[in-house]
């Protein structure tokens, strides 16, 4: 019973080769959705089966893995995927963005700027940006092939006509390398500028839809907009209540049933890092901790 | 400038040469040839199953003919065979220099998207990137097809049948095409709405100097709109000529039957 129950990183070597071929093709054609033979994974669709397969295919024994879900390192999804690879690949895991070589993410890009030789793997539910405008797959493929992207602007037009501004707040369409229009997965549009000219490699895996796409390092990524309604990243107008950060993406947390709420960094690693460095927000527990410490000592 | 126009109007815009289409043993369309000049309205009439719609699909490049060819004079003045165009060119032609008005507006419109975006889609497809200008042009076109601009943000599924059809026309004409195909544009509308739509179409055609190929089984539509008529039966063109000539003095027995089956007013 000493034989390992699984191959390194769960998937068998042939499957990993197949996925790597898809990844290489995706990198060669930035923003193009490459079909691949997605496998059943030991988790439900929608929990990151695509991201997990991409991670499994690129992971090496020396890699350090970080997994985030909505920016957080300690949600169920993030913890189970981290444990999954710790168990099946025996790789080191971390919550620090700086130390990681592979970061699998759902719905966020870390606040800490990514470096070269890091890989960011996105979990993608619906890879086709044109899907809700054009239901036919044959037609959307043809539109990508011929770069017919007028329809994407129809969606933005509708937003402005209805709400007075581009109300799309996540999965905001981008044009990669001045060619393919791509869905950046449901990341908030706040994160879109981080994709542009990023030194890290960005890979996108959609398990149920069986597509892989990529943004190679240092590639131009432009958010679509109108001349008179330019793209604007959105952020709650408040500092983080825990670390006081003024420029990070915030989660809104309801604290009581009387309208009380607090805004906190969605990137937990970034927030903890700042607090450790001595930054405090209005609701930070740090002063109380210090007092408690003093009381215990005194 | 006038000479230039004269010269341009002298050459046909669309030329069909012995077009045939067969589906297995069925010959849907046999040996159809004609030329269409700028500003000319050609009606194709005939009963159901006479090959009208097949012909229209071949003319508009949606269906490859079994034999024969269609050529079109592009905006740069060069006449080209449709079969020689790449798919990208053909689709570009379709959304800029051509229009296609479907019988059922649901086929030609995006029913869940506002009227303004429906009209603006073609503009955005050719690279317009200024919301204000797109919206102004859209509302200008809604006015031209007599739709209240207060309804610019409503989806066409909230529109009546006649309004939908007028919206479809606006959507097609916004890029100022030179050639518009119409497949029974008044089918399914009640008589007073039909009359209004025909009136609108007639003035737009004259104003924009549009060439139109209109397929209809309604001879009244042909009489009101078209300059020339082609009568089809069993996939063949059996009679062709000036509209009043064909309708007032039909030569073929079948045409005589068609004309005589119109109820007297």
Which labels suit this protein?
heterodimer; A: 298 residues; alpha/beta; Rossmann fold; 2 domains; seven-stranded mixed beta sheet; three-stranded antiparallel beta sheet; 8 helices; 29% helix; globular; B: 265 residues; six-stranded mixed beta sheet; four-stranded antiparallel beta sheet; 10 strands; 41% helix; iron (chain A)
Could you give the topology of this structure?
The complex is a heterodimer of chains A (298) and B (265).
Chain A (H helix, E strand, L loop, with lengths): L12 H16 L5 E2 L13 H10 L5 E6 L6 H13 L3 E2 L8 E5 L12 E5 L13 H9 L4 H14 L10 E3 L3 E3 L9 H4 L5 E6 L4 E5 L5 E3 L26 E5 L6 E5 L2 H9 L9 H12 L1
Parallel strand pairs in A: 2-3, 2-4, 4-5, 5-8
Antiparallel strand pairs in A: 1-9, 6-7, 6-10, 8-9, 11-12
Chain B lengths: L1 H9 L3 E10 L2 E11 L4 E5 L6 H8 L7 E7 L5 E3 L5 H10 L1 E4 L3 H4 L6 H11 L5 H14 L16 H13 L5 E5 L7 H18 L2 E6 L2 H7 L2 E6 L2 E7 H6 L4 H8 L5
Parallel strand pairs in B: 3-8, 3-9, 6-7, 7-8
Antiparallel strand pairs in B: 1-2, 1-4, 4-5, 9-10
Question: Could you walk me through the main structural features you see in this protein, from its secondary elements to its overall organization?
Answer:
Chain B: Belongs to the ABC transporter superfamily. Chain B: Involved in beta-(1-->2)glucan export. Transmembrane domains (TMD) form a pore in the inner membrane and the ATP-binding domain (NBD) is responsible for energy generation. Chain B: InterPro entries: AAA+_ATPase, ABC_transporter-like_ATP-bd, ABC_transporter-like_CS, P-loop_NTPase, PhnK. Chain B: This is Phosphonate C-P lyase system protein PhnK. The complex is a heterodimer of chains A (298) and B (265). Chain A has 298 residues and is of the alpha/beta class. Chain A folds into 2 domains: 13-223, 3-Layer(aba) Sandwich (Rossmann fold), CATH 3.40.50.11310; 250-297, no CATH class. Helices cover 29% and strands 17% of the residues of chain A. Chain A has 8 helices and 12 strands. In chain A, the strands form 3 sheets. In chain A, strands 1-9-8-5-4-2-3 form a 7-stranded mixed sheet. A 3-stranded antiparallel sheet of chain A has the order 7-6-10. Chain B is an alpha/beta fold and 265 residues long. The N and C termini of chain B lie far apart (45 Å). The mean pLDDT of chain B is 90. The interface between A and B is medium-sized, with 17 and 23 residues.
């Amino acid at each position: 019973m000493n034989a390992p129950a699984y191959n390194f990183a769960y998937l068998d070597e042939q499957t990993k080769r197949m996925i790597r071929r898809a990844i290489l093709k995706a990198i060669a054609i930035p923003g193009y959705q490459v079909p691949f033979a997605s496998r059943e994974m030991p988790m439900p669709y929608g929990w990151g089966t695509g991201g997990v397969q991409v991670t499994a295919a690129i992971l090496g024994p020396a890699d350090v893995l970080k997994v985030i879900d909505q920016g957080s390192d300690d949600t169920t999804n993030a913890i189970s995927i981290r444990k999954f690879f710790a168990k099946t690949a025996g790789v080191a895991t971390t919550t620090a963005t700086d130390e990681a070589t592979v970061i699998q993410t759902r719905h966020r890009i870390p606040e800490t700027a990514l470096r070269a030789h890091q890989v960011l793997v996105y979990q993608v539910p619906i890879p086709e940006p044109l899907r809700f405008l054009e239901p036919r797959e044959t037609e959307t493929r043809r539109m990508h092939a011929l770069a017919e992207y007028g329809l994407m602007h129809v969606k933005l037009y509708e937003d402005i006509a209805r709400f007075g501004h581009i109300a799309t707040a996540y999965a905001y369409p981008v044009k990669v390398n001045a060619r393919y229009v791509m869905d950046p997965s449901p990341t908030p549009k706040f994160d879109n500028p981080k994709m542009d000219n990023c030194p890290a490699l960005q890979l996108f895996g959609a398990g149920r839809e069986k597509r892989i796409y990529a943004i190679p390092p240092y590639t131009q990524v432009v958010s679509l907009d109108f001349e008179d309604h330019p793209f604007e990243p959105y952020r709650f107008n408040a500092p983080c209540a825990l670390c006081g950060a003024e420029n990070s993406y915030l989660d809104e947390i309801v604290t009581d049933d009387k309208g009380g709420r607090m805004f906190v960094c969605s990137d937990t690693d970034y927030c903890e890092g700042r607090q450790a460095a001595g930054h405090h927000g209005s609701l930070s527990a740090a002063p109380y901790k210090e007092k408690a410490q003093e009381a215990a000592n005194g | 400038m006038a000479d230039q126009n004269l010269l341009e109007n002298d050459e046909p815009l669309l030329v069909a040469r012995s077009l045939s289409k067969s589906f297995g043993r069925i010959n849907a369309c046999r040996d159809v040839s004609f030329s269409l000049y700028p500003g000319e309205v050609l009606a194709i009439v005939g009963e159901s199953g006479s090959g009208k719609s097949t012909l229209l699909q071949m003319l508009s490049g949606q269906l490859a003919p079994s034999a024969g060819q269609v050529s079109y004079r592009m905006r740069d003045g060069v006449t080209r065979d449709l079969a020689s165009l790449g798919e990208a060119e053909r689709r570009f032609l379709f959304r800029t220099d051509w229009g296609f008005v479907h019988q059922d507006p649901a086929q030609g419109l995006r029913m869940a998207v506002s009227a303004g975006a429906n009209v603006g889609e073609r503009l955005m497809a050719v690279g317009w990137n200024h919301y204000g200008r797109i919206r102004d042009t859209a509302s200008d076109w809604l006015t031209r097809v007599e739709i209240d601009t207060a309804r610019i943000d409503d989806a066409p599924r909230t529109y009546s049948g006649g309004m939908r059809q007028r919206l479809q026309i606006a959507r097609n004409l916004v890029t100022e095409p030179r050639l518009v195909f119409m497949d029974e544009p008044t089918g399914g509308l009640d008589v007073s709405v039909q009359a209004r739509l025909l009136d609108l179409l007639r003035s737009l055609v004259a104003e924009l100097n549009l060439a139109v190929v209109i397929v209809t089984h309604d001879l009244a539509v042909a009489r009101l709109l078209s300059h020339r008529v082609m009568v089809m039966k069993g996939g063949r063109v059996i009679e062709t000529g000036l509209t009043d000539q064909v309708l007032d003095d039909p030569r073929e027995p079948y045409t005589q039957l068609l004309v005589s089956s119109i109820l007297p007013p």
